[in-house]
Amino acid sequence: MSALSLSHRHLQIAALLLCVVTLSALAVVHTSFKNRQLFIELQALQLEATQQKVKLGRLLIEESTWSSLAAIEHTASTQLSMMVPRPDQLVVVSTLSQQGDR
């Protein structure tokens, strides 16, 4: 082989290696950029999840407050003008039918 063909071969290998290194560097840059974007999205979703947990906690407290017997009785008496019946006003209705009633 002549020195010219050997030098030409070295240039081809160097050009090929330069292309491979450039493509590899571009892939690293793209991957780093995508990683940053996904990390920012993850942080936003974690913040939203935390806010949803706080909101759920508030709603559970509100639900337990509204479902307490005292709150129900207060609402019934103030907004609906209801009152607890006297014992002589109570009527017991049986929902079980007996064999002889048919």
Polypeptide structure, described:
The protein contains 2 helices and no strands. By secondary structure, the chain is mostly helical. The protein has one domain.
For this entry, give a set of tags.
rod-shaped; 74% helix; 2 helices; mainly alpha
SSE blueprint and pairings:
Blueprint: H1 3-66, H2 69-79
Total beta-strand segments: 0
What general form does the structure show?
rod-shaped
Number of domains: 1
Which stretches are poorly predicted, pLDDT < 50 over at least 5 residues? none
Strand-residue proportion: under 5%
* Mean pLDDT over all positions: 89
What can be said about this structure in brief?
The protein has 2 helices and no strands.
